[in-house]
Amino acid sequence: MSFHLIDMANWDRRERYEHYLNDVRCTYSMTVDVDITSISRHKLYPAMLWLLTSCVDRFPEFRTCLSPEGPGIFDHLEPSYTIFNSEAKSFSVIWTEFSGNYHEFLHRYERDVDTYSSSCRLYPKDGMPRNTFDVSMIPWSSFTGFNLNVYGSGDHLLPIFTMGRAYDRDSRRLLPLSCQVHHAVCDGYHLSMFIKALQDAIDSFSG
After folding, report:
1. In the chain, what percentage of residues exceed pLDDT 90?
2. CB contact at 8 A, 95 and 80
3. pLDDT of residue 28
4. CB 51 within 8 A of CB 194
5. Is 181 exposed, middle or buried (0-12, 13-18, 19+ CB in 10 A)?
6. Number of H helices, E strands in the chain
7. Exposed site from 149, 158, 160, 180, fewest CB < 10 Å?
8. pLDDT at position 31
9. For residue 174, which of 72, 31, 30 has the smallest C-alpha distance?
10. Nearest to 177 by CA among 154, 153, 159
11. Is 6 in contact with 73 (CB distance < 8 Å)?
12. Other CB atoms within 10 A of residue 143 CB
């Protein structure tokens, strides 16, 4: 994992970054239905984790993070995601090392879920790296809008994804997906291009 500081003096996004981080601190979310018909034979959660990570790694806007030395870009992100303890009715947050080979990632995912799904701790798996982005799923409800209110200093620049319950419409299987981003590093154009890339990746996924 490498983190490359941005050269602020020559960054063409500097004016927008400083405005939406310092003057009008602004995050926003967009909720879309992605068509998951083509991956309906696969386990949905690990498949979507793999697809989201693959697409996040294609867009520097989604890998930009603020460090004590200033903003920079990770060369790669790992998925950090929630798992549900059905007995305790609570969730935990774990992470799984990504692999470009889906079957290898699926093996790692299943091993981690088997290991930690009975935990009542919030973060049961030690060693979470800095280069993670957040994913969660609410499989009990579909939604047309979802917004996270992340307080604190308001400088969390990495994206956050939330999935809902999939449903059928017009012979297609659709999945609500909320994408929360920071306007300092990601505009509507970048998010729209990401969503298109994700849908293309889902359509071509062979597993």
Report:
1. 95
2. yes
3. 96
4. no
5. buried
6. 4, 10
7. 149
8. 98
9. 31
10. 159
11. yes
12. 14
What is the separation of C-alpha 14 from the centre of its chain, rounded to a whole number of angstroms? 24
Residues contacting 152, CB < 8 A, separation 6+: none
pLDDT for 14 equals: 97
Q: What is the DSSP letter of 23?
A: I
Nearest alpha-carbon partner for 142 in 118, 162, 123: 162
CA distance 189 to 197: 12
The low-confidence residues of the chain, meaning pLDDT below 50, are none
Q: Where are the alpha helices (DSSP H) in the chain?
A: 14-18, 44-56, 102-116, 188-204
Tokens 């520097």 belong to residue: 60
Q: Say if CB 63 and CB 95 are below 8 A apart.
A: no
Collapsing DSSP states into helix, strand and coil, what is residue 9? helix
C-beta of residue 183 within 8 angstroms of C-beta of residue 21: no
Distance, CA of 161 to CA of 165 (rounded, Å): 14
Nearest alpha-carbon partner for 125 in 77, 76, 82, 158: 82
Query: What pLDDT shows up at residue 27?
Result: 96
Looking at the annotation, which residues are catalytic? 183
3-state secondary structure of 141: coil
